[in-house]
Amino acid sequence: MKLCMIGTGYVGLVSGVCFSDLGNDVVCVDKDVDKINNLKKGIMPIYEPGLEELVLKNYKNKRLNFSTNLRESVRKSDIIFICVGTPTKKKSNNADLSQVYSVGKEIAKYINRFKIVINKSTVPVTTGDEIEKIISKKVDKKYFSVVSNPEFLREGEAIRDFIYPDRIVVGSNDKKSKKILKNLYSPLVSKGSKFLVTNRRAAELIKYASNAFLATKITFINEIANLCEKTGIDVEDISIGIGLDKRIGSRFLRAGPAYGGSCFPKDTKAIVSTASKYKTNLSVIKSVIKSNNIRSDLLLKRVDSIMKNRIKNKTISFLGVTFKANTDDMRDSSSLKLIPYLSKKGAKIKYYDPSGAKKEFIKLKNVKFSNSIQESIKDSHLVIIHTEWNDFKSINFKKFSKNKKLIIFDMRNIFPPNKIKNLGFKYFGIGR
Ligand code: UGA
């Protein structure tokens, strides 16, 4: 099938390259000329394991192309995917849908035969109805169908999540489109993925409700971790103990710093906003947002207490600063609250992240990027393991640090406490 992905951000690029790998002809379109030229040269705009290899392979065999020409790309395609950003608006918690609607208007200009217009961007309920209205101002409804097909890709695992999804959700009221989409996704369905068809609005809400539920699960275990810290219990035992109940499930029960990234913080706010538009109070999600917002303050209080309120002039090493491992993404990472606070209190911060130095910290006093784990740990009083990169899981602290009083605060519980304590260092984790 001939597919056109509009927007070569995370969703558009990953989905586009994966669809081409399944044998479709895909053109990824973006108005950013530099991005498109770079992609043609094999330079990726994002860090995502496995992406570059797949792009190079499929670009070489001509199943994948990149273009800035929306008109040509739409005209020659059967299915058009809208994959543009829906950030939080500056002055409210609503999703900013301006990019989605402006792409809808553009598509409407170039529809020359029947097209399926799929919205993959994360959007509030009824956005599909709006896109349909926009297009139908220019095009007869028999020439297009607007479908919702949300993505469930995690950064750092996106290729795997695309190829082995738990489910594929298609929201459409039109039989013809459902059949075409089932065919498009058949290579994944035949490997065992569930294919769920709902009406368009339900698919839109499934996406928001999924992210809000996962954020709730994480926040729940983070609060239980707070209680564990006061009662001498290891939260890891609780995660395993409750996760073994199939009704609960073991995933997304890792306690840690506040959840971050480009999705959970934005989507929890947006679903609450949408609900209030329909006079519905999502009180659970509201308290999740609140709890997550104050989590960094709790962690900072813990750092204060671990350091016995003597932060000034202490050297603190951060291992990992991104919001999770295997990504260079800093959006809503808790390190953006922790590092400025500690630097303001007079700590000298050294940080190492496998994805490199971060522009967010350039202007901060006493915050420096180290070129290696060893360099970052050397001469430190406290090491904070902030992100769970594999690179950190077998650090030999004894070899890297001469400081016998080194303290380790493992915010991702990647080490068994005794392993560190047996080396003679002080160990603190989350909820243990
Ligand atoms: C999330 C969803 O997991 C995807 O299904 C969804 O498609 C995506 O948002 C999106 O809407 O585009 P992502 O933001 O990439 O994916 O990352 P997650 O792996 O979900 O992690 C989000 C945050 O929760 C991170 O800060 C992570 O460290 C934290 N987390 C996750 C925990 O603290 N504990 C856990 O057990 C799991």
Structure notes:
- A 6-stranded parallel beta sheet has the order 3-2-1-4-5-6, sandwiched between helices.
- The chain is an alpha/beta fold.
- It has helices spanning 10-21, 33-40, 51-60, 70-76, 98-110, 127-136, 158-163, 175-184, 186-189, 200-231, 235-243, 264-277, 283-306, 335-344, 373-377, 397-400, 417-421, and strands at residues 2-6, 25-29, 64-67, 79-82, 115-119, 144-148, 167-171, 194-198, 315-319, 348-352, 367-369, 382-385, 407-410, 426-429.
- Helix 14 (335-344) links the parallel strand 9 (315-319) and strand 10 (348-352).
- The protein is built from 17 helices and 14 strands.
- The protein folds into 3 domains: 2-152, 3-Layer(aba) Sandwich (Rossmann fold), CATH 3.40.50; 208-293, N-(1-d-carboxylethyl)-l-norvaline Dehydrogenase, domain 2; 299-429, 3-Layer(aba) Sandwich (Rossmann fold).
- The protein is globular, with a radius of gyration of 24 Å.
- Helix content is 42%, strand content 15%.
Short description:
Helices cover 42% and strands 15% of the residues. It is of the alpha/beta class and 432 residues long.
